[in-house]
Design brief:
The protein is of the alpha+beta class. It contains 6 helices and 20 strands.
C-alpha cells in the first residue's frame, strides 16, 4: 500500500484533563514518519487517543501498534489462552464474552472492572494498550479513563507528602483456575512500584496506585496505609479527572498506562462484545 503523505492532524479534545480524538485519518493507510511522530506527540499530550470508523485487519492493528513502540508479547503459552486466540496473529489478544459450546473464546469476558493500570503487577509494565472494537452491546461496556497527572497535581498536599518517595505493592490474581467459573485467563503476578510515577517521556508525575491491584504501602502498617490509599483511590476516581468512552463499532483507542488508569462498566451478558487488544512493551522499571 502506498505511503500516505502527512496532513495536518485534526485533534479534538474529549475532556478537560484526558482524551482526544484524531479525526479523518484512515489507519489502513501506511503513514509517513512525520505523521507517525505527530500522532505520538498527540498521545503523549492527551494520554488517550481515539480513532473512530476504522476497518482494520489484524495486520493493520499490529502496524499501527508499532507507531507507539515495540509490540508487547503475549506473556503466557498459547495453551493457557481461550481457544479464540489461536485464530489471531501473534501478540493480539481477544477480549470477548462470546461463548461457543459454553466456553469463552476470549479473555475478561463479563461484567464491570474496577479502576486499574494494565500490567502494573509486572516488574516492567507495558507502556500502553490499544483496543479495537469489532462487536459491541447496545449499551454498557463503557471504558472510563482517569488522568493520573491531574489527580496527582490536585491531591491533598498532606497526603502527597506522606506518600512521596514511597513504594506500593501490587497483586494480580485472576482467571478460571482461581475463580472456577470460566471468567478469564488464569494469571498471577506481584510487583513493587512507586506510588507516584515519573513518566519517562514527559517527565510529569502521576498517581500510580489503583483500587483493583494495589495491596499496600511498603514498610507502612495496614492501619496507616489503608486510609491513605483509600483517600487516593477516591480522589483519583473523581469524575472531574475522567473521560468516559462510549464505544462504537470501529473505534480504536490507545491509552498510556504510565499516567492513567481505566475501568469498565457492566453490560448485558446476553449481548456480544468482541475487542482486539495489543500492547506496547515497557523498557524500564517505573521510577
Amino acid at each position: 500500500m502506498n505511503v500516505a503523505t502527512k496532513a495536518r492532524l485534526d485533534v479534538v479534545q474529549l475532556s478537560p484533563h484526558i482524551g482526544a480524538e484524531i479525526r479523518h485519518l484512515d489507519l489502513r493507510e501506511t503513514r509517513d514518519p512525520s505523521t507517525v511522530e505527530a500522532i505520538h506527540q498527540a498521545w503523549l499530550e492527551h494520554t488517550v487517543i481515539l480513532f473512530r470508523n476504522q476497518e482494520l485487519s489484524q495486520e493493520d492493528l499490529l502496524r499501527v501498534t508499532g507507531y507507539f513502540g515495540e509490540v508487547g508479547k503475549l506473556s503466557r503459552p498459547p495453551e493457557f489462552f481461550p481457544k479464540g486466540y489461536s485464530r489471531l496473529l501473534p501478540n493480539i489478544m481477544m477480549i470477548s464474552n462470546i461463548r461457543e459450546n459454553g466456553e469463552t473464546i476470549g479473555a475478561l469476558p463479563d461484567g464491570e472492572m474496577m479502576y486499574h493500570h494494565d500490567m502494573i503487577h509486572a516488574a516492567i509494565p507495558h507502556y500502553a494498550t490499544l483496543l479495537y472494537s469489532m462487536e459491541i452491546p447496545s449499551y454498557g461496556g463503557d471504558t472510563l479513563f482517569a488522568s493520573g497527572y491531574a489527580a496527582y497535581e490536585k491531591l491533598d498536599p498532606a497526603i502527597r507528602t506522606k506518600l512521596e518517595g514511597r513504594n506500593a505493592v501490587h497483586h494480580y490474581n485472576y482467571g478460571s483456575t482461581q475463580r472456577g467459573d470460566n471468567r478469564g485467563v488464569a494469571a498471577h503476578g506481584e510487583s513493587v512500584h512507586p506510588v507516584f510515577r515519573t513518566h519517562d517521556e514527559t517527565g510529569r508525575k502521576a498517581i500510580y496506585v489503583n483500587r483493583l491491584m494495589t495491596a499496600g504501602i511498603v514498610d507502612m502498617p495496614p492501619e496507616e496505609s489503608e486510609p491513605l490509599l483509600n483517600a487516593v483511590f477516591d480522589h483519583s476516581e473523581k469524575p472531574e479527572f475522567v473521560y468516559a468512552h462510549v464505544w462504537r463499532k470501529g473505534d480504536l483507542l490507545i491509552w498510556d498506562n504510565r499516567c492513567s488508569m481505566h475501568a469498565r462498566t457492566d453490560f448485558p451478558a446476553d449481548q456480544r462484545r468482541l475487542m482486539l487488544r495489543t500492547t506496547i512493551k515497557g523498557n524500564e522499571r517505573p521510577r
